[in-house]
Design a protein that fits this description.
By secondary structure, the protein is mainly alpha-helical. It contains eleven helices and no strands. The protein has helices at about 5-40, 40-55, 70-85, 90-100, 105-140, 155-170, 175-185, 190-195, 195-210, 215-235, 245-254. Helix 4 packs antiparallel against helix 5 (about 105-140). The longest helix has about 40 residues, at about 105-140.
């Protein structure tokens, strides 16, 4: 067998492995989706997601649906999102299992804890957004509505807003992971990141101004945790040592 044939076989085997991992990840999401669709049901899941907004609306006021199929499609979309979040550990494990054979031993030891911690932090970011940010922001916005106006948000626009906010806060809570990776891989040092703290603070408020609604409260509630989580990442990273080149070469030789 020639070298080209061997390379082709390796490439095909990688594609087969990738397909297998994707099927397992998608299968996990679909199984969770079916289970959630049967119980508690798409409507109940959407009602739970809409609770922070409904609590800020005047008594007797509900949200509206302007599209013909919106009352059906939006709860389905929300249920699929919930299924993805619940199945996220399985999805990330399949991704890790696919790339693990090509990693050094020290990278394999680091990968699994990072997957678990990044999943937990992302879920914590979503929970912080749902239980703290939504309640505060919606009540703040409702307080500015004139008495002659009855707020009736569209459910599709609301879900789009919620997904954007979940992503923003979920990724914000990943900042400690990013800081640890930068230091552990030797790309930079904790001292250099600490010296750039001023730029990070400015960047945090710029990002918050872009991805959050145009009110000061939501911007502060994103920027402040981002800065605090950056400090947490620095604290953890300062206790870690990057892998030396000699150790990495020794593993490569093995």
């Amino acid at each position: 067998m020639t070298t080209e044939d061997s390379s082709a076989d390796t490439f095909v085997s990688h594609l087969i492995e990738l397909r297998t991992r994707l099927i397992r990840a998608v299968g996990a999401i679909l199984l969770v989706f079916i289970a959630l669709f049967l119980y508690p049901g798409a409507s109940a899941i959407y009602d739970a997601l809409a609770q922070p907004m409904l609590a800020s609306l005047p008594t007797g006021t509900n949200m509206i649906a302007t599209g013909v199929i919106t009352p059906f499609m939006v709860p389905i979309k929300v249920t699929l999102l919930a299924a993805f979040v619940i199945a996220l550990p399985v999805v990330l494990y399949q991704a890790w299992a696919f790339v693990a054979p090509g990693l050094y031993k020290h990278e394999q030891r680091l990968a699994l804890p990072l997957i678990l911690s990044s999943t937990l932090l992302f879920l914590l970011g979503m929970a912080f957004c749902y239980f703290v940010v939504f309640k505060t922001v919606f009540e703040f916005i409702a307080g500015f509505a004139p008495e002659s106006v009855t707020p009736a948000p569209d459910i599709e626009a609301y879900v789009s807003f919620v997904i954007t906010m979940f992503m923003a806060f979920g990724l914000t809570f990943e900042v400690p992971i990013a800081v640890v990776l930068l230091v552990k891989t030797g790309i930079t040092t904790a001292e250099k990141l600490r010296s750039a703290r001023g730029y990070v603070i400015v960047g945090a408020f710029v990002i918050a101004a872009v991805v959050t609604p145009p009110d000061v409260i939501s911007q502060f509630m994103l920027a402040v945790p981002l800065c605090l989580l950056f400090e947490v990442g620095l604290l953890v990273a300062s206790r870690m040592k990057p892998l030396s080149a000699d150790a990495e070469n020794a593993e490569a030789t093995e």
